[in-house]
Protein: Short-chain dehydrogenase
Organism: Kibdelosporangium phytohabitans
Amino acid sequence: MRTIVITGGTDGMGAALARHYLAAGDRVVVIGRSRAKFDALSASNAAFIAADLSLVQDSRRAIDQLRQEHDRIDALVLAASFIRQRRHVTTEGHEASWSLFFLSKYLFVTGLADLLTAADKPVVVNTAVPGARADAIDFDDLEMADGFTFRRSNAHQRRANELLGILATKQNPALSYITWGPTRLVRTSFAGEVGTGMKVAAAIMAPLLGQRAEDAVRPIIGLIDTPTPGRAAYRGAKPRPLTVGAHDEQDAARLGTGVEANI
């Protein structure tokens, strides 16, 4: 029996993956904010950890619990999402989108590294859409105190998650680390603090053009079930080229040093 850990596993694509692996007989750990949504999964071989992953302390608490209760993690799916169009600072003093979409992922990947190493074919699927420019990160302002825009923040996080794969696979060459995004809209509840325009677009476009979460995650299931060591990027089932910068190794190390100094 494999152990599958899914952040954001109470809704959308995360919940679709949880249902699939529970039906397959795997042990699934769901991390999310809603106990009620978890209970709707109705499976005895599932465990729930309540956490707001925009808070570093909640991420660390969840990681500690996973380490206490498991000696191996076969697959780690990082799918938690909450969209904010404006800069927001958490009670801990971190920019909320950076904290949710990168700091939590950094903590899970590094904090669970030995449990992933203990698996025969470990895999991390990071639902950070690949393809951000190599220069998308401002290393002198990781939390974007100056010049924040939704577009810059999104590219900033996505590139950081690609660089995280360099750190993760350097530590564990057997690890499959995948940055992944769907090919098109997914029909799911829209969690976030956004303007009217984005709300209306999501409400209209997703039902018309979006795919079911169960269909969207099929490529992820294939990547988890037949992992290949090393880094890779996908949109749906289609491989995408990894972004290559002039100083990727140095940038990854600089990112890790900057994060460790501030959490």
Observations:
- The chain has a mean pLDDT of 91.
- The chain has one domain: 3-260.
